[in-house]
UniProtKB/TrEMBL annotation, chains A, B:
Signal peptide per UniProt: none
UniProt-listed Pfam families: polyprenyl_synt
Organism annotation: Streptomonospora litoralis
Protein's recorded name: Octaprenyl-diphosphate synthase
Family: Belongs to the FPP/GGPP synthase family.
Classification via Gene3D superfamilies: Farnesyl Diphosphate Synthase
Domain of life: Bacteria
Name of the coding gene: ispB
Example GO molecular function: metal ion binding
Amino acid sequence: MSFSASSPVSFVRAAVDGEIARFLDRRRAQLLEVGSELVPVADALEAMLAGGKRLRPAFCYWGWRGAGGADVAGIHAAAASLEFLQACALIHDDVIDNSDTRRGLPATHKRLESLHAASGWTGSAEAFGRGAAILIGDLCLAWSEDLYQASGLGPEALQTGRVPFDAMRTEVMAGQYLDMLEQVREDGGVEATLRVMHYKAAKYTVQRPLHLGAALAGRYDDLAPVYTDYGLPLGVAFQLRDDILGVFGDPEQTGKPAGDDLREGKRTLIVAETLERTGSADRAEFLRHLGDPLLSAETVEWMRGAAEDCGALAACERRIDDYVAQATAALETGRIDATARSALADLVVAATARKH
Amino acid sequence: MSFSASSPVSFVRAAVDGEIARFLDRRRAQLLEVGSELVPVADALEAMLAGGKRLRPAFCYWGWRGAGGADVAGIHAAAASLEFLQACALIHDDVIDNSDTRRGLPATHKRLESLHAASGWTGSAEAFGRGAAILIGDLCLAWSEDLYQASGLGPEALQTGRVPFDAMRTEVMAGQYLDMLEQVREDGGVEATLRVMHYKAAKYTVQRPLHLGAALAGRYDDLAPVYTDYGLPLGVAFQLRDDILGVFGDPEQTGKPAGDDLREGKRTLIVAETLERTGSADRAEFLRHLGDPLLSAETVEWMRGAAEDCGALAACERRIDDYVAQATAALETGRIDATARSALADLVVAATARKH
């Protein structure tokens, strides 16, 4: 997903980036007090935090603004704390999935594996990389809390904010576990896939960050239901758009090879829909190719055709349209600040529009 | 280390256990709202939290009492939060070290690996167990914060307490990284080993929990230096006693096979001292056996003899005596409440006394 320079995400991005950079500077100094051997750890953290769309901070920020909160440094810092939670999730996810790259760069465990190899140390470089990445992810999770609590917002506001803050973390980890489970159970039906999306995408990426913003502004009770009605469908729609891009996206635009999600074997909703809609012969062939790392361009083309011909693509697009309508309608209710309402409406479009 | 029923650890143990149980009950309900598939996750968490000496909570509690704090539920909950941090450290440590057991039971990743195998799921049971354990450790880390912030102590006190709380987590993760590094660099000298002990044992187990107690009671500024003078030597002495038990301990008493640390190849201080003190022939033989999982009783006996004959054991015992004297002397300074001072003096003895 990309946003124009004037989008509601880029509006808050510089401030969030600044908070992240300042916080990382202080933490680098703390790590180096322990020893100069921690430099690669600090470097890996900085590289990880440099990337990312800052989507969760944007929803947190606009959730706060929607509740009448002012554009102050405290909310930038509290919002930025969500990027450290996300960094933990990604670093650990890459270890769990054994994924070598993240945003076109080596995954954290691969970085540390290379350090081991280049340093001529003993033992398994792979095990070292994995272990170090587990610890670096832990640091990100701990630091997410530290930045949140040190944001400068009042102790009472922070305490109120902990309701969605705590729920968000438990839900994303439970969602990750469900996701792992769906992979090994090879259930992967439409309903099971939607449940994982509900926790990993809808609640974690959109609803809870909005709730956090509202709670920090002291308006959790009256705004949480509205933000739920807006956030849950938007989160699923956003994930669906990403899933469609993972199968049909143009490499020029996604920065990933064509059909990358098929090659990785991701059990996304479009895959689940395809498997439920195709005949048994095509289903068997589709399953045989799914997750093949050496998938040819021709086979990607065949799989795209299968997803299109059986109506899976159209069903996903219809779902996006429905969810977008629901999210947009939700904004009409509730006492949301006018500037924020307009930003939240723009976010629906930016997160779910077809990419060409 | 074992404590008698009237020890300063058992004094607070029931209250800490109660806080952990109540918190886990609430969180189990939250996990089951996500789905009944989370039952094994909740069970694994409960099993992990059922064990443990509650040593860090005890130091936190007595740090608070030493600062004049009363025996209230809030400090029990804040102290109990440290057990969740420790649970994360152990669960992730077992993944990193690929250790199959913890306190005589299957390690968390082995529990979940068995679940995979018993359920007939697809893919690697080992990878599933490892991935699930990473997520379960993450839950423990997040929940440690939640329990701390929900302890019921005032927001101002909790905010003050975050200075040692935050430092403690960064330090233990940095210490774990240094520990991994020492293993692969095969440096393992006395100084390098002492540095890892400084972070993983002295600061994490004793000093920072005491600091936390003092900070929560509003007396961080005047008591932190005293608790440092007491806690750092005590923490190293405690770890040294554990290390000596890991080589010379009686299986009846430790619950582990004789010479278990030698079989695991742990680079403890007594090993470092032995390697620095023995001649090159013995050193080579000692290194050849170190970490051999099939070590015979005879070889364990020979390695014990080597550690004793070269003076490594005596050097470690001398260090314990020195550190015990330093820790005890530190209690004489500073305005520590009399009951707590006596408890802290008892903790020195309990944590470092020779076991027979």
